[in-house]
Amino acid sequence: EDFGCYVSCFLQNIDIMDDKGVFDPAIATQSVAEELREESKPEIYACYEMRKNEPVDDLCKTAFGMINCLKERAPKLYEMLGIFRAPGN
Question: How many whole angstroms separate alpha carbon 65 and alpha carbon 14?
Answer without folding.
Answer: 17
